[in-house]
Design goal:
Blueprint (H helix, E strand, L loop, with lengths): L2 H25 L3 E6 L7 H16 L4 E6 L7 H10 L4 E5 L22 H9 L1 H8 L6 E11 L1 E4 L14 E4 L3 H9 L3 E4 L5 H6 L5 E4 L1 H6 L8 E4 L4 E9 H4 L4 H35 L3 E4 L2 H11 L3 H8 L1 H16 L1
Parallel strand pairs: 1-2, 1-3, 6-7, 9-11
Antiparallel strand pairs: 3-10, 4-10, 5-8, 5-9
Helix pairs in contact: 2-10, 12-13
The structure holds D-xylonic acid.
């Protein structure tokens, strides 16, 4: 091969190698992603959003930038959901429970005592049932990427120690904007009031409400221990968070850009669950050290509470659809037998 021809062949080879790289680089445009969330920056939610942002920036060579906006600065969950649907905001993470007004199937996750362990939650949420529920968001203008762990919820209040059902009588309890939670706590005798999370701290502080329920992590990171004296370990329901994207915006992304977001979301899920579980493991002791009085329920009282709470199950089944309900129960039975 003469030198000229060799040079031409070499140049062609370089071009052939570079072509896919160039194509994918063109497929990734400079993007600014407004990513909203409800808790503060120091929370497990805040840490995981930061992790997600770093993954996206790394994978896109700095072209896709995530602006993480916490503490409900873009509004409570329901307001951000509408901003995503309208295309005024790109992404968010929040409770599945606040999505029930958009996708009724999300209420499946609000079923009291649905999961016995985080392991069960992972299998069902990441499996076909979780995918099916997530997919229902699509025709409502949202794309669900992955579920994160909010966690098992526990009860706090400033009025009195709750060690039996009757102690909840007349306790004014903030719940999420969700009928299953409303019905659940009304059936326990509490005076349940729906309220966005962003208003909760000051409502507790001013005693507009007496109590609330959230995972240990959130009680700690939102400093509820400063305004709540009593904590009862109820673990009454496992709460997921879900990352959602504006479908309007998502549909305009290239496959390469969508892949970057999906990969980062999956990585953030693993990071978030690990981080959340580690924190939950020490949060209870920390809350105690900060002055909260911790009450465990006797097995008999736990059973009474469980019995009352699971009375709402029949209506959840009807509401989310009996097929989905039965499929979930069957999957859990199979999982528990394994
Ligand atoms: C944060 C909320 C929170 C939830 C609640 O935006 O509202 O009590 O548990 O995590 O989604």
């Amino acid at each position: 091969m003469n030198p000229i021809r060799r040079a031409v062949v070499a140049a062609a080879a370089v071009a052939a190698l570079a072509a896919p790289l160039l194509a994918s680089a063109q497929d990734i445009k400079p993007r600014l992603i407004r990513f909203g969330y409800g808790l503060n920056e120091q929370s497990n939610q805040g840490r995981a959003v930061k992790f997600f942002a770093e993954q996206v920036e790394k994978a896109s060579g700095g072209k896709m930038r995530v602006r993480a906006i916490g503490a409900a600065a873009l509004g409570p969950d329901t307001q951000m959901q509408q901003a995503l649907i309208g295309g005024a905001q790109e992404m968010m993470v929040g409770s599945t429970a606040t999505l029930v007004g958009i996708t009724k199937e999300m209420a499946l996750w609000d079923t009291p005592f649905l999961f016995n362990s985080a392991k069960e939650a992972d299998v069902i949420l990441d499996g076909p049932i979780g995918e099916k529920v997530k997919a229902r968001l699509q025709d409502k203008g949202l794309v669900g990427l992955v579920y994160w762990e909010n966690g098992f919820r526990n009860l706090t209040n400033s009025k009195r120690p709750v060690t039996k059902l009757e102690d909840l009588d007349g306790v004014k309890l903030r719940v999420m904007q969700n009928n299953v939670f409303l019905d659940s706590f009304r059936s326990l005798g509490a005076n349940a009031v729906p309220m966005p999370f962003s208003e909760l701290f000051s409502a507790l502080e001013t005693k507009a409400v007496d109590g609330q329920e959230n995972p240990f992590n959130t009680i700690l990171s939102s400093k509820f221990h400063e305004v709540q004296k009593y904590l009862t370990v109820t673990n009454h329901v496992y709460s997921p968070w879900i990352i959602t994207v504006s479908k309007k915006w998502w549909d305009g992304l290239s496959p390469a850009e969508q892949k970057i977001l999906m990969d980062a979301a999956r990585a953030s899920r693993d990071f978030e669950r690990k981080d959340t579980r580690e924190e939950a493991g020490r949060a209870l002791a920390e809350l105690k050290a900060k002055g909260m009085q911790i009450n465990e329920l006797s097995p008999a009282e736990a059973a009474r509470m469980r019995d009352r709470l699971t009375r709402v199950n029949a209506s959840i089944g009807v509401n989310v659809g009996m097929d989905l309900w039965n499929e979930t129960q069957a999957a859990l039975t199979k999982l528990r037998a394994a």
